[in-house]
Amino acid sequence: MKKQFYIFILLCVSSFLATAQTKLKTGSWRGVLKPAAGELPFNFEVKDTAGHQQLTILNAKERFKVNDVKFVGDSVFIRMPLFDSEFRLKQEKGMALTGRFIKHLGDRDAITPFTAKQGIKWRFFQAPEKPAYNISGRWSAVFGEGTDRDTTVGEFVQTENKITGTFLTTTGDYRYLEGTVSGSKLYLSCFDGGHAFLFTANIQDVQTLTNGLFGNTPWAAVKNANAKLPDAYSLTVLKPGYKKISFNFPDLEGKKVSLDDARFKNKVVILQVMGSWCPNCMDETAYLVNYYKKYHAKGVEVAGLAYERTADFEKSKKAVLQEKQYFNVPYPLLLTGYTNNKKETAKSLPMLSNFLAFPTTIIIDKNGNVRKIYTGFSGPGTGSHYTEFVNEFERLTESLLAEK
């Protein structure tokens, strides 16, 4: 009997040790995603808060907080607050992590190996070479080759070895990029839980970037203080013969919503064509939440039309609800039932011509007529471009509200 008692105690202790929670060491960490195109580093911090651990991902000025961190024995499970993605990791004494980053894409999972070490603040190099050039300023950058060429605008701020910035495209921007200039090489990265970006290039001189790679896509750039993109209000338009947008999509409770509903009558209406998987849409949602608070009482309504990775209502609802809760979205988000394929979007809104990007923002006057359509979104990571967009967008709002 005594022997059985000791065996029971031993089993209990073993079970406890197998499930005991071991926290991560607080402070600075360096994570490295390892896709086929090369190692993609980013930095994050760990701290104890309100009885649990919180991660903060660092990209230039952005601080992206992650609260869903769980421990089972030596395993760590980190679920990202936006985008349907997670880390499944093993830890070593709370100071090193190895495992996988998993993006759930509706019909499949994309898996990327991942490692991280505690106590490291540098991103690309512990001791980079002295920079050969300072490449701060505006650049005209071309990505791809032949018919796949895409002209973008790069903007960088460099202080010694550290560099931050972004690329602006006709469909949005690459958000907060951060990296290093080492000798005559440029390295930039960003990780936001949904997308992981890695850019490299040779710096030929203060005017020329060559042999660039973005994943497997080649790119090059020349300095150009006057570089700019086409007018974002000119790219997507209504087809001839149309003045209005029409749809009938369910909200998150399954109730059908259309622009014929009373809440939209005699209102300036902003339609956000978006997806919970889209980082630029995330930036736009953050802006529109505050915009709605500012203008709703003056006669503005906003609605988001969600195009998800799957047409399954319950799966899409779960993803969109996560975004609604994270940003405390006060306006209705509608599940279109169409996927994020641009052809699907065009099919669901057949009055649109040349649909190019998520997000796309449709501005409707008090008579229900479409007045402007804005392609893409230049988020706060673009600095003055974001400020210019906000100022212009709100001037347009004021003028539409003033119309009789």
UniProtKB/TrEMBL annotation:
Keywords from the UniProt entry: Signal
Q: Which InterPro entries match?
A: Redoxin, Thioredoxin-like_sf, Thioredoxin_domain, Thioredoxin_ResA/DsbE_sf
Occurrences of domain Thioredoxin (ranges): 238-395
Q: Where is the signal peptide?
A: 1-20
Which molecular-function annotation in GO is an example for this chain? Answer: oxidoreductase activity
Q: Which superkingdom is the protein from?
A: Bacteria
Question: What PANTHER family does the database record attribute to this sequence?
Answer: THIOL:DISULFIDE INTERCHANGE PROTEIN DSBE (PTHR42852), THIOREDOXIN-LIKE PROTEIN HI_1115 (PTHR42852:SF17)
Q: What is this protein called?
A: Thioredoxin domain-containing protein
